[in-house]
Every structure is written in structure tokens, then in C-alpha cells.
Amino acid sequence: MATHKLLLLPGDGIGTEVMAEVKRVIGWLESAGLASFAVEEDLVGGAAYDEHGVAISEEAMTRALAADAILLGAVGGPKWANVPYEARPEAGLLRLRKDLQLFANLRPAICYPALADASSLKRELVDGLDMLIVRELTGGVYFGEPKTITDLSDGQKRAVDTQVYESYEIERIARVAFELARTRRNKVVSAEKHNVMKSGVLWKQVVSEVHGAEFSDVALEHQLADSCAMQLVRAPKQFDVLVTDNLFGDILSDVAAMLTGSLGMLPSASLGGVEEISGKRRALYEPVHGAAPDIAGKGLANPIAMIGSLAMALRYSFGLGEAAGRIEAAIAGVLDKGYRTNDIKSEGTTVVGTSGMGDAILAELGAAR
Ligand code: IPM
Ligand code: MN
How would you classify the pairing of strands 3-11 and 187-192? Predict the structure, then answer.
């Protein structure tokens, strides 16, 4: 059996608590003989700043570059509100994305029937929702230069962020979206603002070209990003794959996440290109939720998104789709049995904490053996 190099970066806030549950699931995978891992662990975000004065150390970056896959918890918190901008916790995550060239961020939004009542939308609108947001992750306004605040002569200041995309960046993310659509319901919506932004004009044009040349069997629809936000809360089940840029993807994926009942439910994968010689693809997996400092340290956090992120790693990085499926089935199973963390509780359910949810999932996994 191949041994997979897995780097764990729990990070800050609830990141460490939900990662603890993932470690138990890793232990189960190994003891059940389903997988073998060489696990390393390091710091990122505020935790790395406290130890090293930077949001990620060079040593951790070296480990990240050597890993087959990375699992990241969350970064950030009020404790680091005043650290230098370059060393803020988010910088660690952004450096990982950029240096590992993880350009494709896959954010599935699946509404488990058992949770439809936890959504802020009516059950009939979200029950059975199964969409995938494909967010461009290494370009756009997040990384475009110049990115500055300058003093003007009249005492005013000017802030500049730069939204920039080159055609190759749009081509490769469009390909990921179309390829994934073929494995699903064969429909892609592409969202941009071509009515206001040049980058939107190019985005729409390049997506159309890739579609025409390579994927004309896939249904493609273009939506303006604002209208797309409206459609997401009006009729979310119209979406199969939604492809969009870095900033719109950040916003729209939070909206999509909330449709499912809780941010605490959603895993994500950030993938690089396939390397020519090794055939490997760099990958980082993380929950969509953040560090949630308000509940950190209390044992209340929902570990499902983090455990689901491990399942995505098994599927996309390690070719262990069957083991991934068992974990996902166990998650659905505990929800069916009525176990809920605080964020997804409703009447008549059994409220458990972080480790209680871990216990329930492990028991379910054992039962499925
Ligand atoms: C996300 C987060 C990050 C982002 C932050 C932490 C930099 O919100 O992964 O969606 O904006 O991309
Ligand atoms: Mn976000």
C-alpha cells in the first residue's frame, strides 16, 4: 500500500479543535487497513506568528511543497488584529495558495435532507441542493499589483487594488469547471461583471472560447455576478457547476455555503495543475468556515467540514474514492440519526460537541465496516 505524505496545518481558533477529530479519522483509516500515511504537522496563521513572527515559516513551506496533500484548519482571530499586514494570519494561507499554485478552488455546496430545516431558505428551495463552485484562487484582485495605499499631497490617501487576469488563467480554470461538469449534471454557469469590468469582458470571452473548442457538449450559461448572487438565493437548484473569479468566488461561496444550513458543513479542495513528470497535482484541503474565535476553545465547533475535507483529499489526491465515500456516508448517517452540533441543531435532535460529533462519526464508520 502506498504511503501518502500528509501535512496537517491546524492553524488558529477552532482549526485545532476540528483537526483533532480528523486525526482520529486518520487513525481509523490506518487501523482499518484502508490507507497508510506519513503525517507531519506544522503551524500557520496566528499560531505561526506567535512562534516565528511570520504567518508561515520557511520550514513549513518546505514541508508543504514536499507533501502529497495538505489539510488546513483555519487562520485568523482578533488576537492578531494589529500585527503587520505582511504577517497577518491570512498571509500564511495566501502564500500557500500562491507558492503552490493552487489555482482551482472546489467548493461543493450540498444540502443534506436532514439539515434542510437549518437553512435560512425554505426547505423546498434547498432540499437536495448539490452544486459545486469552482473559484479561481491565485489571480485577480487578491494578488494583482499594484496593491497600495499612498499619501496624496492634499492630505488625502488613495488605496489601489488591481483586478487582473490573463487568458491562460481563465482557460485553465474554465477547463477544470467543464471537466467536473461532465462528471456531474453537465452544466456550467460562469459569473463575471463584463458590463463594468474589462477583466469580466475577457473572462466571458475566454470561457466561451474554451467551451466552443473543447466542451460544446456541456451546457454553458453566463451570468452577471450580482444577478448570480440573486439566483443563488432565489433558485439555487438551477446550479450544477459555477465557475468564477477569486473575489466573486469568495463571496458567492459564502452565500452557497449558508444555503446548506451551516458553514460548518462544507469542505473545499484547492488544486494545482498536473505536474508533467510525476503526474502529481499539488493540493490543499480546508473547510470553508474560518477560525470562529467566538466559539474557539469551547469544544462546540462542528468538525464535519474538516472531516469532509479529509474525504476530498482521499478522493482527489490519493485515489481512495471508496474510503472517501465511506466517510461521507458516515457523516450523512450521523445526521440521519439526529446528532447535531450547535450550529445545525433543531428541535428533537441530539446536540453534541466537537468530540461528540467525532465519536458519532467514528462509531458510524465502525458500524459500516
Ligand atoms: C476563504 C477566506 C479567505 C479568502 C481569507 C481567510 C483570506 O475567506 O478561504 O474564503 O478570502 O479567500
Ligand atoms: Mn471566504
Answer: unpaired
Whether residue 174 lies inside any domain: the answer is: yes
Q: How far apart are CA 125 and CA 296, in angstroms?
A: 32
Looking at 225, 259, 293, which one is the last position of a domain? 259
pLDDT, tens digit (0-9, with 9 covering 90-100), for 14-31? 999 999 999 999 999 999
Closest Cα to atom 10 of ligand 1: 250
Containing domain of residue 215, as a range?
A: 130-259
> How many separate domains does the chain show?
2
Active-site entry in 142, 285, 316, 339: 142
Please check the confidence at residue 369 and state whether its pLDDT lies above 70: no
Question: Is there a domain that residue 282 lies in?
Answer: yes
The answer to whether the bond into 303 is cis (omega within 30° of 0) is no
Number of Cβ atoms within 10 Å of the Cβ of 186: 14
Segment 353-367, tens digit of pLDDT: 999 999 999 999 996
Residue that the C-alpha cell 450544477 belongs to: 240
Which helix (H) or strand (E) covers residue 249, if one does? helix 246-259
User: Going by CA atoms, what residue is nearest to atom 6 of ligand 1?
Assistant: 90
Separation of 270 CA from ligand 1 center, angstroms?
A: 12
Give a yes or no: residue 347 inside a domain: yes
DSSP-derived 3-state class of residue 158: strand
Alpha-carbon torsion (112, 114, 116, 119), positive or negative: negative
Q: For residues 89 and 50, give the distance between their C-alpha atoms in angstroms, rounded to a whole number.
A: 10
Confirm if 136 and 244 have CB atoms less than 8 A apart: yes
